[in-house]
Amino acid sequence: MRIATWNVNSLKQRLPRLLPWLDERRPDVVCLQETKVADQAFAELLGDQVSSRGYGVAAHGEAAWNGVAILSRVGLEDVVRGLDGAPGFPHPEARAVAATCGGIRVFSVYVPNGRTPESEHYHYKLAWLQALRDVVAEGPSDAVVCGDMNIAPTDEDVFDPEAYIGQTHVTEPERAALAALQALGLHDVVRDRWPNERVFSYWDYRAGMFHQDLGMRIDLILAGGSVPERVRAAWIDRHARKGTGPSDHAPVIVDLDEAPDGDIGPVVPPPSAPARRRGGGGGGGGKKVKLPQSP
DNA sequence: ATGCCTGAAGGGTTCAGA
């Protein structure tokens, strides 16, 4: 079973990339974030296109901002939209949807950005992460939490730690909140698979950041229960960040062996692997680069 | 000192993103 997660940064804008990508990668389960459409608009934009490809849809969106979804062609049961106990800002936002797909509890999440560590939004982010931990803790252990965590787990997950000092995504409380979630037994499957690779999932659109491979790894697949031992491959689909009209995030993909009591299906090797070994010279070694900043 | 890029809403510009 192939599970993918992708912050598409507008479903509407990304259709010309999303549909060919589905046909190329053929994931069984797809978690989407930042769809930026209400559920009715989601169905009109994508409904026929995904049903003809065999996917069921669980969308949870709103106009303009946020929005998450799960596409699955291995079942889509017990759908829960939203996150029980989560704070709003001030109203609840469409940042989580869950469903059981092929025997695994799947969460597609878009964690609040946090903006700056002094902001109310930052406290909102931390409280939201606590609610996420509580909800995942109540569910089955065979689970995957997929999505845009808006946290780089370690300094190895940003191109230049010095460039991010004092900013969100790298602060200790955010990393502690992520660690508390992982303490439920969730494994970061890409980092486990590529412990020493320079591997990012997000690159700012500005200033040629992608071209220079100056990014962050903030999109994660966290797998619990018996799922981690089934991981056959895990990688970031960097190719999807290239070309015309990309999202600023790349998809993350994990391939699982069949469950122990299931049939063993064909195993397809990953079409691409993370590009460069950390410290291999070029792109982010010692060079000092100015980080794009908000005013 | 600042913009850099993109998307959305709504209106001829502003906010948000990370």
Short description:
This protein has 295 residues and is α+β, with helices and mostly antiparallel strands. Helix content is 21%, strand content 23%. It has helices at 11-25, 39-51, 120-138, 172-182, 189-193, and strands at 2-7, 29-33, 56-60, 68-72, 77-81, 96-101, 104-110, 143-148, 187-188, 197-198, 219-223, 231-236, 252-256, 276-277.
What can you see in these coordinates?
The structure is a single chain. The protein is 21% helix and 23% strand. By secondary structure, it is α+β, with helices and mostly antiparallel strands. Helix 1 packs parallel to helix 2 and helix 3 runs parallel beside helix 4. The radius of gyration is 18 Å and the shape is globular. The protein binds one DNA strand of 18 nucleotides through loops.
- Provide the CATH top-level class: Alpha Beta
Helix fraction, binned, reads: 10-25%
Total helical elements: 5
Structural class by helix and strand composition: alpha+beta
Radius of gyration: 18 Å
- E-strand count: 14
> Largest beta sheet, briefly?
6 strands, mixed
How many separate domains?
A: 1
- CATH topology call: Deoxyribonuclease I, Chain A
Write down the secondary-structure element order.
Answer: EHEHEEEEEHEHEHEEEEE
